[in-house]
Amino acid sequence: MTSIKVIVADDHQESIDIMKHLLTSLPEFQLIGQCANGEQLVEEVIVKKPDLVLTAIKIAKKNGLEAMKECLSFLPMIKVIFITGFDEYAIDAFEMAAVDYLVKPVEEERLAQALEKAKNIIEFEREKMGNSLKQQQKILQLRDQTATLFIPLDEILFIEKVGKKCLVYTEKEIYDTSETMARILTRLDDTFFHAHRSYIINLEKISQITPQKESFIVHFKDYDQLAKISKLKINEIRKLI
Description:
With about 240 residues, this protein is α/β, with parallel strands linked by helices.
């Protein structure tokens, strides 16, 4: 897991020391800055872009609530745990979607619980973002003679090498490109298989396989064009599907 970058802010060095002591004992957290006032906190967040801020509320120059509102305006994914000697700001803090609100004196175990909660939220959001990016990447980008093509992977039935070109077959259209099969293969996911020297096949689109002399013929549902599997690859295909 990528480290969770943390900035702490308080105008009492004792509080800073407590936070630093606990953070250094937790390998998943990386302390990247400490601040003594709200203005410094905003500057540090702008420059260092942490994942999490632990801050007091009543600190010099700009209080913790105001500073974090400003930080959230340009870094909306940042998480915050407020650690303060006052309990009257709890509603304001949770309106800002604070991970937690701790009233001093804070026991180390309670702070550890808040950090664990923050870690779980950050890991969940990272995973969600990663999955979203993976979905966005399920597009085959190709160059033809006049333009760049963007073809959804789940629309591709198979790809055929014909001379110096490759033909990309979908149910609605056939696209041609001068890009090589080897180059195309690196941009496909594991639903595709290089089944023959001239064919890459979408395994999820196969409806039938029939033998024909030295190779096998691949049929696709409601589609007239056919692809081939070499006899050397047929056992691998059968295992995969």
